[in-house]
Amino acid sequence: MPARANPSSSNPPSTPARQLAGFLARFDPPVSKTMRAARAALQKQFPAAYQLVYDNYNFLVVGFCTTERPSDCFVSLAANAKGVDLMFYYGATLPDPQGLLHGSGNQNRFLRLETESTLAQPDVQSLIQSAVRQSKSPLASTGRGRLIIRAISAKQRPRRQPRP
Asked: What's the predicted TM-score (pTM) here?
């Protein structure tokens, strides 16, 4: 659960954007840079999408959704100490003629983002657009979504690679 501000405290409550910046600061600079840039690119492409943030045990996840419901996420960014993945919640049903997607589960698929420029590749954009089209709820064509911190796990894996 998100941390709640103490009403008697003189510190103002943290905004979701500040909380997300704090989550990203715990990663090695290349990972946080890729995550910030990829999020900015998706935010520009889908300004009406809701962004649901989960700082959980394994990953920091920012899901881009058509509504405030997690099941309406069409694509997510997931960062761990090793890097950033572009996740497709319903990726198993996406057309993937280039074989870009990894995973063998019944539902999710992903691809590694070496840099944020991976998002601009035509085959990746085709996957993203297919994910938007197969969404249960349509994405609003106007308006602005919101950044929503949905969960923060007390216990987490290290966010940085161990130093030799």
From this structure: 0.86
Q: Which long-range CB contacts under 8 A does 15-24 form with residues at least 24 apart? A: 16/53, 16/146, 16/147, 16/148, 16/149, 17/147, 19/53, 19/149, 20/53, 20/62, 20/147, 20/149, 23/53, 23/55, 23/60, 24/60, 24/79
Structural domain boundaries in the chain: 16-152
Q: In the numeric block, which tokens belong to residue 62?
A: 């920012």
The residues near 57 (Cβ < 8 Å, ≥ 6 apart) are 153, 155, 156, 157
Structure tokens at 30: 């290349």
Q: At 130, list the tokens.
A: 């297919």
Instruction: Kindly report, residue by residue over 40-78, the tens digit of the pLDDT.
Output: 999 999 999 999 999 998 999 999 999 999 989 999 999
CA distances 16 to 54, 91, 137, Å, are 12, 28, 24
The helix (run of H) or strand (run of E) holding residue 79 is strand 73-80
DSSP, res 4: P
